[in-house]
Amino acid sequence: MRAIHFARAAAVVSVVAVALTLAGTALASRCTTVTGTFDGATYYPPPCLSPIGVCLRLTLSGSFLQTEDFMFTTLVNAGDTSDPTRYEYTGSSVISIDRDRALYGQDTGVMHISPVELAPFVTTIEITGGTRQYSHASGQLLFAGNLNLSTGLASGTYDGTICKAGDGEDE
């Protein structure tokens, strides 16, 4: 009798393990790796709605992503006595995929602002959702580049992963 219960328990564990493996594979297949380059420029009110008055529009190449509109929320000196050029910022992004679809993200980053014209920066965007089949999207993008403080022009590279929720939303 005990052997029968053990055999049933082992069978249930095996079925659950296979189901979890298949679910993990399905989840992974809903994620897409993106990589590419960007260039763009800052813009100011109006139409920029940033509380500190600075936005950045980037054109993205190398993946299905088309543009990123970044709105600075904060920009403060990091207070690092060993590197007084270090500034930290937060903001929000809208990343267009095409005319009808976009991703939304919350940004954090570091920029080095000095008397030299080029300000290197690194931004991490946590994907928080989007439109249509991306309404429950997640993932993370990393943008690294330079902002020319004299001209407002920016360029660099990006990479990351975007995951759809896969909850039956339209394709």
What order do the helices and strands come in, and which of them pair?
Blueprint: H1 2-29, E1 31-43, E2 55-61, E3 67-77, E4 86-98, E5 101-112, E6 118-130, E7 138-148, E8 153-163
Antiparallel strand pairs: 1-2, 1-8, 2-3, 3-4, 4-5, 5-6, 6-7, 7-8
Question: In brief, what are we looking at here?
Answer:
The chain has 171 residues and is an alpha+beta fold. The chain has one helix at residues 2-29, and strands at residues 31-43, 55-61, 67-77, 86-98, 101-112, 118-130, 138-148, 153-163.
How would you sum up this structure, described in words?
- The termini are far apart.
- The chain is about 15% helix and about 55% strand.
- It is an alpha+beta fold.
- Strands 1-2-3-4-5-6-7-8 form an 8-stranded antiparallel beta barrel.
- Residues about 1-30 have low confidence and may be disordered.
- The chain contains 1 helix and 8 strands.
- A hairpin with a 7-residue loop joins strand 6 (about 120-130) and strand 7 (about 140-150).
